[in-house]
Request: fold
Amino acid sequence: MSVLLIEAFYGGSHKQLMDLLQEELRDDCVLCTLPAKKWHWKARTAALYFMQTVPASTNYRFMPEHKLAHLEKVIAVKRHGDAYQSEGLPGQQNGRALMRNSNTHHESGLCEAQPGLDTTQLEGLPSPVTAPVRLSKSEASESTNPCQEEDKQRLTFNLSNTLSGLDDQQRPLHIAWPHRWEHDKDPETFFKVLLQLKEKDLPFHVSVLGETFTEVPDIFSEAKKALGSSVLHWGYLASKNDYFQALCMADVVISTAKHEFFGVAMIEAVYCGCYPLCPKALVYPEIFPAEYLYSTPEQLFKRLQNFCKRPDIVRKHLYKGETAGFAWAALGGKFRSLLAAEPREDL
Reply:
């Protein structure tokens, strides 16, 4: 049996999960992806792209007998068509050559396989309107913004020197925001709260992490200027080691998201010892105990105000929730069991 992995938003935690599954399911694993851009368009149109690019195979998972028989008939018919040049696999349109075991990334998408499986890729198709947690070895996606590269040169990431010689009470509270630089993560609310702290002359440092894409909300450049010396780090960290170092040095991790199905970044930060503050909405109440949730920006401000005055409170705090269940050690067997399950007739 072959495992087919499809990811229409191959970046961030989505990429992390796909890479992890492909690494752990080494035998007979095919990964088909699209770049991590234009989330809403991917949700609407990615299926149209994948239906033309996913390699046809009777070996994929969860295929009942009646569907296998139908697929075999379809493949048999297509074998005799001019547009299909290889037995059992879709051919390239307009005479493009078949690619085997492709590991080449394109803006329009990617299909790659472990040794032993054939894959195809249609380079000419337009893209749609052009996870479990594991502190893994894999590197994060490289989709950075040019302005962030400049920031990284100016803001050398050396927290140990910055904070050396200060005890728990002297060191300003270190706040981390490790999310995509997009509006659905509500950076406006986050920076509004930080600027309120700044107006009251409360001491804190902030590390604004996470990926950027083609369009970056204006609030980021505005906030960076307004926060001034409070900024400890600003920009995406391509190295996982640097990223986890930043989280390990932070005291509090904050989410202001308006759209979140799970929130891998928040769980990772908790693993790294951060005190989480999340909206009392979306998926967060299912994961975090009540004391780590806030209902309004005003509540978030008050919590941070207290922590700025007494940073030692969060530094001595032991997280009261459960994190072990999100690790690969706990979930790996469940994924393998799911992907190896017998097909059912109701599928």
Remarks:
- The chain has two domains: 3-132+329-339, 146-326.
- The longest helix spans residues 39-53.
- Residues 82-108, 113-162 have pLDDT under 50 and may be disordered.
- The beta strands are 3-10, 29-35, 110-113, 173-178, 204-209, 231-234, 252-254, 275-279, 293-294.
